[in-house]
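Throughout our pipeline, every protein is held as a single compact record rather than as scattered files. Such a record has a labelled line for the sequence and another for the backbone structure tokens. The remainder of this section carries one protein's record, kept here as part of the documentation:
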Amino acid sequence: MKVTDHIKKAKGETLFSFEIIPPKKGNSIQELYNNIDPLMEFKPPFIDVTTSREEYVYIEKEGLLDRKITRMRPGTVGICAAIKHKYDVDTVPHVLCGGFTKEETEYLLVDCHYLGIENVMALRGDAMSHQKYFEASNGGHLYASQLVDQIQNLNKGKYLHDVIETNHKADFCIGVAGYPEKHIEAPSLQTDLKRLKEKVDRGADYVVTQMFFDNDKYFAFVEAAKKAGITVPIIPGIKPIAVKRHLQLLPQVFKIDLPEDLIQAVESCKNNKEVRQVGVEWCIQQSKELQAAGVPVLHYYSMGKSDNIKAIASAIF
């Protein structure tokens, strides 16, 4: 079932969903199952699975360093199929511009269609570590809006190079990212909203936000999006702080602000166990306020660990 259909079926009730990352290659999927199992009691209608782009590794060979390109966490579509089969739940693979040609993207989408995966999250992705700015792969897309175009073309039965006559078209529900505190590269929030509206106008069906820790910023973002003509569901993405270094890491990586009350609470903790509890309590309060406001889904960035997400969900659902 499509994410938007799950939202309609809920008839105003706030749903629970979460996001996971594939295990590093060579590891077993069982560890992933172990973290998903405790969260299934909250009946998530869908689970997101991230995709990692390629990266360079350096291998010593005869005293010299040889640079090779690799993917440390492959298997997103396979993991989606495995989760869908094991738990009978819809899955949402993340599809990136970065690191993929248009042809590779088409093959990935065809695989999703074969497997009965009806939802995809269309993302530009980040620049590689050696790049100052994001650069499109040779033969790939530069913007997520172009990726949305390609997915919508498949929904219309239009493939890149082939003339195919078929009545069995794809029918993907497309999610895209939104940024309550604006994307790092956008010159202003208003410009960022224009880019988001462009993705929606091209066929995006719903939006999931970047993490935020101040609900007022989400509410202001939703209101500004409505004024800009964006009417699709906007799902809040939430991440509980878990370790003290998140105070520096999250603002640096995601360019977000942390509320002063949260900063002081984390700084007063003696260890990361206490920090984790602060993160859970803050996230519970965030979730309760968002739920009371009638958000369609509370989407948690679990990133492979479920104990704190379970504690939050137990207080909300």
